[in-house]
Amino acid sequence: MGRRIGVLTALALTALATLALAASAQAAPQLEMKARWAPQNLIPGENGLFVLRVRNYGDADTSGTVTVTEQLPPGVTRIEPLPFDEIFGIEEGIGWKCEGLVTVTCTTTKPIRAFDDNMPYSGGQGDTGLGGAPGYAAQIYIRVAVDSGAGGGYVNVATVTGGGSDPAVDEDPLRIASDPTEFGITPESGEADFYDAAYPAGEPQRQAGAHPFELRVNFDFNLQAGEAPSLFPGFISPFAYSLPVERVRTVKTILPKGLIGNPEATPKCTASDFLKEGVSQYTSTACAPETQVGTITLLLNAFANETRGHGDGSGSGLFTPASWTRIPVYNLEPPKGYPADFAFNVGDYRGHIYPTIDPGHGYAIKALTPYISGLLPVRSAEFTMWGVPADPAHDWLRSTTLEQGGGKKNAYGASSKAPIKPLLTMPLSCGDHGKVIVEAESYAHQGQWKGTQLTTDSLDVTGCEDPRIRFHPEVDLQPTSRAAGGPTGLQVNLRVPQRNDTVTDADELYEQNGDIQAIATPPLKKAVVTLPEGMTISTSAAQGLGNCSPAQIGLGTDSPVTCPANSQYGTLTLYTPILPKDAPMTGKIYVAKQNDNPFDNFLSLYLAIQEPERGLLVKIPGKVDLDPVSGQIRTTFDDLPEFPVSDMEMNLKGGVRAALANPSTCGTKTITAEFYSWAAPNTPVTESSSYEITHKDDGTPCVKNLSERAFAPELTAGTISPSAGSYSPFAFRLQRTDNDQEFSQLGVGLPQGLLAKISGITKCADAAIAQAEAPGRSGAEEAANPSCPASSLIGSTEVGSGVGQVITYLGGKAYLAGPYKGAPLSMVVITPIVAGPYDLGVIAVRSKIDVNPETTQASVSTDPFPQIFKGIPVRIRDIQVKVDRQDTIINPTSCDPMQITSRVTGTGGDVNTTGDDTAVDLANRFQAANCANLSFKPNLSFLLKGGTHRGDYPAFSATLRARPSDANIARTAVTLPHSAFLAQEHIRTVCTRVQFAVKQCPAASVYGYAKATSPLFDETLEGPVYLRSSSNPLPDLVATLNGDIDVVLSGRIDSVDAQIRNTFDVVPDAPVTKFTLSMQGGKKGLLVNSRNLCKAPSRADVRMTGQNGKRYSSKPLVVAQGCKKARKGKGAKKR
Amino acid sequence: MRRTLLALTATASLAVAVPATAEVAQEGTLRVSFEGGIAPHQLPRQGTAPVAVTLAGNIKTTDGADPPQLRTISLAINRNGRLDYKGLPRCNFHQIQPASTVEAKASCKKSLVGKGSFKANVALPEQSPFPSNGTILAFNGNLHGAPVIYAHIYGTEPLPTSFTLPFHIKQGKGSYATTLVADLPQVAAEWGFVRSVSLTLQRNFSYKGRRHSYLSAGCPAPKGYPGATFGFAKAAFGFEGGPTLRSTLTRSCGVRG
Question: N or C: which end of chain B has fewer CB within 10 A?
Fold first, then answer.
């Protein structure tokens, strides 16, 4: 790192003492030493050029001999001038006399002039008493030869002594290497820092929030060496020069994060005044002194014509170094695209420094100085920005335009009449803020930034506990609607009162003086806003909403924000003292892409200010946390830019698609906010704001408690086509108003005979359902690749949720599933929760389907509906289910008026528990039509197997066959022939109803077996036939048909005309193609022949009633299978 | 075969026949009322005359609970009574079982020796007890070479059913030498409870040109007495679980002529 020790004694003094001494001490020269060389990497075996510069920063000329000593590194030796150089007046430095080969000593007795008020000055490289820039001695050019074997890194030491000044030393790293020198800023060539006093005095300013006296930045560009052809063949050319490797195009300076620059600290010079040329010296403008904010000094290679080449120029005068010293820098009205413009005029070449806040560097100030070509090849630059520009302490460098000789010229010494305000403020966060970064690009290699870090020490800010730091934010948050439970936007007004930093005495703005105005108000670092309980995200906002991807927001970059318009959630206005009050920053609030945002969470926001016309680009992510139980919203914006914000207004959009929903209860709602400043990032300041909810959306009084809400949902249900016995889609719809309690659970009772054909339908496996519900599965995934197979799909759902007039509908799919919670079948509705930009995953609501075994009447009971899913209240308003798989739902064959019933429970007062749910029973009339069109002619046949003789116990079977288009059977009575007696000795036991209910009938109660084939099922329903106790005089003959569902057919046994009769009074209205009832025979037979069956045919008496009311009677033959055998057999016994 | 019912050792004081009454036997809460009688009341002092004998038993409990199941019936008839079934056609079990009363009578009309009734309750689990009532026809039969009386029981309520109960006729000594013993089947498995049984035996038939009566009896009244009271029969009902209730039916008769 370059270290110039030109103020050794001054460094020992305090800044205050220095200032005091400056006023009273005797004038003295103050020399500064600067050594450079070209090429920047000295190349082994080649020649190089050292350039030694002495400046006198004192207020008196030097007197006596001034000696410069350059200690060349090992392997580098001075090339002594040729004997005829002197003849041609070629010197190593005007007025300098050098000697020595390794330790080169150059002396002059000519005084080096002090800086004077005849500034700024533009001219040659300076001289030693021969004119040129005051304060500069003529530069010394020492040509050197580098040994071919030299190499490595060293520290070059150059010293200046004498002249009545304290000695000064310049130590810089030096490298001998063969790799070529590239364009760039010479590493460790310069420094940048904030000081509390004027150069060369002052200590680095490190107090948080303080206003430095000035910012100093200087740096060099890498040099290359060259020489003109030798005048004398065989001799070295006397004309050598150095110049930048390439011409710099743009310089970019990035100040430490948190440093605040306020371009509003001074009046601004208009572009036209800036362009008005003054007279002489080519540095003048018509800008008022009040607009000056600092100075700049440039050293460059100029087209010199006043010298013959003092070792660094050719005979043509090309590449002669020239300095432009302490040129005033003005605060200009910024052009389009920049928030500020600091400009200077260097010999009619006007340079601009455009500061912006850089999202790529934590909103640090980034200053761009573009298009430097007009300034000719710049070798080095020094820039000083005043911390308090109107401070009279800067007047000696404050430029003014003076009339002179009928023309105008600039001169120092003007004063500012502008209000005294700080332009620079140190960061208000403590800790290491790094260093100033300077980067540059050349015309030859545009876009290839070569940079380095400047600053003597890192900007390690301290003093955040200074009691003068005040942070008292205020907040006011109001909803755009005060309707209970309705959609609402939100207006957030945040104020951070700023310190009044306009003073009458500039000293009040310097922290070392102890005044309170000397420390700025810390910017807001973090804001945590917790909305009232009950105020939640509104799903109604999802429709049409987009989102903003990381690429579109481009956090941490200066790329423009390209978030889609439909991702805008609100607007943002920031008032900052660093911008005109009447021109606040305005921006937009966007919805971040779910799970693809800085927080990898569900919901985040972006605050984006993008004003290209002012060069403003601010992008701030905000995290939104949703309480998974209550849905309460907490929004956190952290690491806000470290620039002062006095007022912030955020408006989240209202209206029917508002982002938020108000609490459903009336009363005072309080929003709390925690604010953290950059100065105290761990100490919250808590503020709150309240508002009243007074009414519902329709103007009626709101409830004080959620349980007071009404619950009056409306039910619509039925088949699309009610034609009896035909297939038709089934539609179900349940709706509630915004003011009703939320749906908690739902039960639906279908009418008898309204059945589903599940034949051919796969049951979605539990594992597949679990996969759908698995954490991490996205709705998009489910939509693209449904967990349940298509073969299990039976219908679709549309579930609308939201508040207010706009309901967001989500489509789901209904699948048939297997046994669930004791029911033989179930349905699962799988809904990918993809609404607008949100993909919350998948909600699977399973419903058990119970089937009344006596009537096959189905009832569906859902599991509790999710109320808050991932922190977002679901607020289901409309449930639409359509079971529309082809040929699935079949109408009854009875046209009796029936009902579709529904027991719907509301959430009561607590949506998260079912204990306080309230239930309502709803019914929707249902009636099939055209039953008379259905015929009814079932066929019933009987067969006796086994012994045909009296006393034999034949097995008995009855087989029913029904035609597909017939009405279903409602009642059947079968009277057996007289020949059938009850073999009561074979009544082993009966199954009690209790045993039957728990399916624990004793084996001895089984007397037969039954099978039923129905088009509704793939498999045959079958099971034992029991004698089961009943409320009839005799036990019932009960056939249990088990399969996809369990059906129980209960036959009442009695006698008529001394004949056994079995009557099925209740037969399900279900299509059956074949039904077989087989009763055991032999020792287990319940029937005994009272006569020889083969003697005469026996007939049963059958009387059936269809579900459509039609009757059918028959007397079918009871076939005794054994009679044939008996006739064929020999020795058959007659009884 | 002719069996003579020996004169009853009735006391002389029972010269006048007493009307038929019920003798009650009780054990615990189980109570059986035995009834029976002989007709006609007037019988010859000397010799016998055809008679009809009725025996009945009613079973109940004093607490209303279901009685235990009746398992055996034993009837011992006074030796003054005579059972004569020689020449009487015999009915085969398979001719009448199962059969309705009509069918049974049609099958073994010539063997018919009596009729009666049968009442039972079938109490299935969780089921209100339903009555099982039937008509009894008694047929002269032979089972395994021994004489029996087949009691054919038929009912239609609640369902048409029949069963045939063989009463084995056993000859012994003493005052009650002729015993009819029947083991009841498990009517309606273990769920049936007999409430009452009533049977009247009477049959006149001709054999080889002579008139016979299935049952004959005289009135064992001493001379000079118009009638007598005598131990008519002994009845015993054995129940499931062990208890057997017994009673002696004492009846009276008058001297004819």
Answer: C
Count CA atoms within 13 Å of residue A216 on its CB side.
18
How far is the C-alpha of B214 from the C-alpha of B207, rounded, in Å? 11
- Cβ(A761)–Cβ(A792) under 8 Å? yes
Q: Under 8 Å CB-to-CB from A157, ≥6 apart: which residues? A: A70, A71, A169, A170, A171
Strand partners, A220: A380
Residue pLDDT, tens place only, B64-103: 888 888 889 999 988 888 889 999 999 999 899 999 999 9
Q: Name B77's Cβ contacts closer than 8 Å, sequence gap at least 6.
A: B5, B53, B83, B176, B178, B179, B180, B232, B233
Q: Which residue of A has its CA nearest to B157?
A: A1055
Q: Rounded to whole angstroms, how far apart are CA atoms A691 and A697? A: 16
Distance between first and last Cα of chain B: 28
Element (H, E) at A1120: strand A1117-1120
Contact by Cβ (8 Å): A548, A606: yes
pLDDT reported for residue A125 = 44
- The answer to whether residue B9 scores a pLDDT higher than 70 is no
Query: Is residue B133 within 8 Å of residue B117, measured between CB atoms?
Result: yes
Q: Name chain A contacts of B97, Cβ cutoff 8 Å.
A: 950-951
By the 8 A CB rule, do A219 and A380 touch? yes
Which residues of chain A does B161 touch, with a Cβ-Cβ cutoff of 8 Å? 981-984
The mean pLDDT value for B26-49 works out to 91
What is the residue whose two structure tokens read 């990918």?
A832
Q: Is the ipTM, as predicted for this complex, more than 0.95?
A: no
For A1003-1045, strand residue ranges (E) read: 1006-1013, 1021-1028, 1036-1042
Which residues of B fall within a CB distance of 8 Å from A1031?
128
Nearest-Cα distance to chain B for A1091, in Å, is: 7
Q: Which residue of A has its CA nearest to B184?
A: A985
Q: Is the pLDDT of residue A813 over 90?
A: yes
**Three-state SS for A995?**
helix
Closest CA to A365 of A464, A433, A411: A433
Residue A1042 has pLDDT above 80, yes or no: yes
CB contact under 8 A, A984 and B130: no
Strand partners, A673: A529, A687
Does residue A985 or residue A1014 have the better pLDDT? Answer: A1014
Query: What pLDDT does A86 receive?
Result: 66
Cβ atoms of A1107 and A892 within 8 Å: the answer is yes
Residue in A463, A489, A459 with CA at minimum distance from that of residue A477 = A489
Q: Which residues pair with A1030 in a beta bridge?
A: none
**Angle CA A197–A201–A204, to nearest 5:** 60
How many angstroms separate the CA atoms of A653 and A637, rounded? 19
Please give the Cα distance from A749 to A336 (Å, whole number). 71
CA distances from A806 to A538, A591, A661, A698, B66 (A): 10, 19, 12, 15, 73
pTM for this model (two decimals): 0.75
Q: What is the DSSP string of A660-726?
A: EE--SB-EEEEEEEEEEESSSTT--EEEEEEEEE-EETTSSBPBSSGGGSB---EEEEEESS-BTT-
Mean pLDDT, to the nearest integer, of A1063-1076? 95
Note whether A313 and A307 are within 8 A (CB). yes
| Alpha carbons B73 and B76: distance in angstroms, whole number | 10
Q: What are the distances in angstroms from CA A300 to CA A138, A376, A380, B50, B184? A: 15, 7, 7, 165, 138
- Taking the CB of residue B208, how many other CB atoms lie within 10 A of it? 7
- Residue of B92, B102, B105, B127 to mutate for A, most A C-beta atoms under 10 A: B127
pLDDT, position A905: 95
The answer to whether residue A1035 neighbours chain B at the CB level (below 8 Å) is yes
Residue A302: per-residue pLDDT: 58
